[in-house]
Specification:
The protein is α/β, with parallel strands linked by helices.
């Protein structure tokens, strides 16, 4: 099935200017194409044109032509579009229709009137592929973000469509599960010959498996349509605010000039022989300083155990401390209990056993409102936090609840809008924003309150590199200049490497490790047990015979910090 955009433009009904401008693009039957670009560049809008949401569910004006399999989309209806293009949405909660995981996966098969016997077999086999076969009776709404993403993935895998569209399929997945998802998509592509379109920020993770082309978008236009090696070797990714693969950034940091002839899109095929000497010299010459460890304890987690409705423990005998002024990450596989810790700190849940103390005071004595004055929490899904129609009002709501006067509200909100890259959206309605832009609004609404402890649950989900870097620089500034302690729950290995000095690893409800980020990332067996996978920095160090991978990663972190 071919997809062809011809000088295609689209403008949302609520906006003055077009979101897509003069798109000319042809995707051949059986191709696997990745679409990248900064937040708000039009990637998801392009996807909504493919699956029929535009123009049948989302209103606006379009010019030019979009043909799917030779048929102009204007001559089809929504049902005909969805019969040809199956979609896994970025916001998985908006996609669930069944009361259980099994029902949700079976939804497309029921619409096709597949008999129950074959349907049950297909649902079980598909669920097993994404490690959900033991959870078919559970409600999808009771799952972690990563587990929800796998339910959506399974729901599209059983459907018999010509084109599979994945809108940020990795946004909520831990690294190992993300790799498995990319492998599943690749296997589907190879076995069925379906056309696959992937919209994703995490380009390096998508390139875990082969892709045919990468399309780079900016400001509603296509600025590049290249083979992976050509794009990775070019300066286009950093120019447009897209994160390069870590190993490419490390090679450039060491002064290496990477060319397309070296096949740089995949570390497994990259010719590293010309770069050995420069990389070793770079590490040898680096002067690394040891950071002082703060001594005053801010948050203390002691023997924490919690189970949902008496079921298997989500957390089991977890103990750790966070010192005042630290920048710490909590890592682990989907469903390991990371987000449960946040809910316990917020007071939404109460521990079965153990205690949580803030500055030596048992938080069980504090009301939820009192906790919210001291601890700011930014949830993984921005739609679960937003309660106002306008962006300014959403960010200002916490200050207004505290009784701040209008002048102070305007000053602080304006400052945070600028620092979070949202200044031009000051008077916009929230529904006009992309998922990543909504995420920045929720983070800004917490940052403006300057809490003692700021907890960010998957802060980079749905964010492009340029915007999350600007935002995380602001978070780091809060940490360094105001002494706000930062706790990040994340699957983003890049983020953890660059911004946090210490990592706490949780898997299967238990604490596995608590140490420096580079020491943890130098232990493949530990990473494997926590679904974290090795970073390409560690793999690069091994490939060039570097005996001290920890030092290699510290050199890279110091270099990146020096650039920001």
């Amino acid at each position: 099935m071919t997809i062809e955009f011809s000088n295609f433009s689209f403008k949302y009904q609520s906006l003055d200017k077009p979101t897509l401008k003069n798109i000319t693009l042809r995707i051949e039957k059986g191709e696997k194409v990745v679409i990248v670009g900064p937040s708000g560049c039009g990637k998801s809008t392009l996807g909504q044109c493919l699956n029929g949401l535009i123009p049948f569910a989302i209103k606006g004006e379009s010019t030019g032509a979009l043909r799917i399999n030779g048929h102009d989309v204007k001559d089809l209806d929504l049902h005909q579009c969805t019969e040809q293009v199956g979609t896994v949405l970025q916001d998985t909660d908006g996609q669930f229709v069944g009361l259980s995981i099994g029902e949700d996966i079976a939804f497309a098969l029921e619409n096709q009137m597949i008999p129950q016997g074959p349907m049950h077999t297909l649902v079980r086999d598909t669920a097993k592929m994404v490690d959900l076969d033991s959870m078919l009776e559970k409600s999808p709404h009771d799952l972690s973000g990563g587990q929800k993403q796998r339910v959506s993935l399974a729901g599209i895998m059983v459907d018999d469509v010509d084109t599979l569209l994945f809108d940020e399929p990795l946004a909520s997945l831990d690294p190992k599960t993300g790799k498995a998802a990319i492998e599943i998509i690749d296997r589907l592509h190879q076995d069925t010959g379906k056309t696959v379109v992937i919209i994703e920020h995490r380009l390096e993770d998508v390139l875990h498996c082969h892709v045919d082309r990468i399309i780079l978008m900016n400001n509603g236009e296509i600025v590049a349509d290249l083979l992976p090696d050509a794009l990775i070797a070019s300066p286009l990714l950093p120019e447009y605010g897209i994160r390069e693969p870590l190993y490419i950034s490390a090679l450039k940091a060491a002064g290496c000039h990477v060319t397309a002839q070296d096949k740089p899109a995949y570390l497994s095929s990259l010719n590293l022989l010309p770069y050995h000497e420069k990389l070793h010299q770079w590490v040898s010459d680096a002067a690394l300083t040891e950071l002082e460890s703060p001594s005053e304890t801010l948050l203390s987690i002691d023997s924490l155990t919690y189970s949902y409705e008496g079921d298997r423990n989500a957390l089991e005998d977890i103990s750790f401390e966070v010192k005042k002024g630290e920048f710490v990450s909590i890592l682990g596989k989907n469903g390991s209990g990371k987000s449960t810790i946040t809910k316990l700190i917020m007071g939404v849940l109460s521990p079965d056993v153990g205690s949580i103390s803030l500055k030596g005071r048992d938080m069980a004595e504090m009301s939820i409102f009192e906790r919210s004055q001291k601890v700011g929490v930014v949830m993984q899904n921005p739609n679960h936090m937003i309660s106002h129609h306008m962006i300014f009002d959403e960010i200002a709501s916490g200050l207004r609840n505290r009784g701040a006067d209008d002048a102070l509200v305007d000053e602080k909100v304006t400052q945070v809008l600028e620092l979070c890259g949202l200044k031009k959206y000051r008077n916009w309605p929230i529904e006009a924003l992309s998922y990543g832009q909504k995420k920045r609004v929720t983070i800004a609404s917490m940052l403006v309150l300057e809490p003692e402890l700021l907890i960010l649950d998957e802060p980079t989900a749905g964010q492009d590199y340029r915007h999350y870097t600007a935002m995380m620089q602001f978070v780091r500034e809060l940490n360094e200049t105001l002494g706000i302690t930062i706790l990040i729950i994340s699957h983003d290995m890049h983020l953890v490497l660059e911004y946090t000095s210490r990592a706490i690893v949780i898997a299967d409800s238990k604490l596995l490790a608590d140490g420096t980020v580079t020491s943890i990332f130098s232990q493949p067996e530990l990473l494997q047990s926590a679904n974290l996978a090795e970073t390409s920095l560690y793999q690069l160090a091994n490939k060039i015979g570097m005996t001290d991978a920890d030092r290699f990663m510290r050199c890279f972190i110091a270099h990146e910090a020096g650039l920001k």
